[in-house]
Design a protein that fits this description.
Layout: H1 5-37, H2 43-71, H3 80-87, H4 102-119, H5 128-135, H6 138-161
Helix pairs in contact: 1-2, 1-6, 2-3, 2-4, 3-4, 4-6
């Protein structure tokens, strides 16, 4: 399918909205983390922290899905969450550049793993120590995502300039 400048402009705009929403989610995450740093050991505060990490990764995953849908299509229904993220550090010649570096991918994959566990906890207890350890990486993941969006948007802008409508 041939992409137009308008198609590329729309993807850039959508990724920009994701980046803006990430700022809001990062603020909520920081507030939840601060309550715990201030001494809270309440399960409700840890649950709120987990929820913000879950939502941060959900936003990252949605941005990745936009990119795959725009350039590639076709994710298998089995384990598509992992497959989607696994594609992001891949530069596919003639199709699309990589969205994440290898280092960014590794950080995002930790968030993906947590999101999977968090969504499926049900009656299992939340591992507060694991959550604390993961929280240490959240500001880095947010920055990496924002940097990836900025970098990718520039690539997309150059791609759009090379298209004749």
């Amino acid at each position: 399918m041939k992409r137009t400048q308008a198609d590329i402009g729309r993807l850039i705009a959508e990724l920009g909205v994701d980046r803006s929403q990430m700022e809001d989610l990062a603020e909520l995450n920081a507030r939840a983390a601060e309550r715990i740093r201030a001494g809270s050991v309440d399960l409700l505060d840890y649950s709120a922290l987990g929820y913000t990490i879950h939502n941060i990764y959900g936003l990252i995953e949605n941005a990745c899905f936009r990119i795959v849908k725009f350039f590639e299509n076709g994710l298998s229904p089995d384990a598509w969450h992992k497959e989607l993220l696994d594609r992001m550090p891949l530069a596919i010649p003639g199709i699309r550049p990589a969205f994440f570096t290898r280092e960014e991918y590794l950080v995002m994959d930790e968030l993906r793993g947590f999101r999977h566990v968090f969504r499926n906890l049900y009656s299992r207890p939340l591992d507060m120590a694991r959550l604390d350890a993961l929280q240490e990486k959240v500001p880095l993941a947010v920055k990496m995502f924002e940097d990836s969006v900025a970098r990718y948007s520039k690539i997309l802008e150059r791609l759009g300039e090379s298209i004749e409508d």
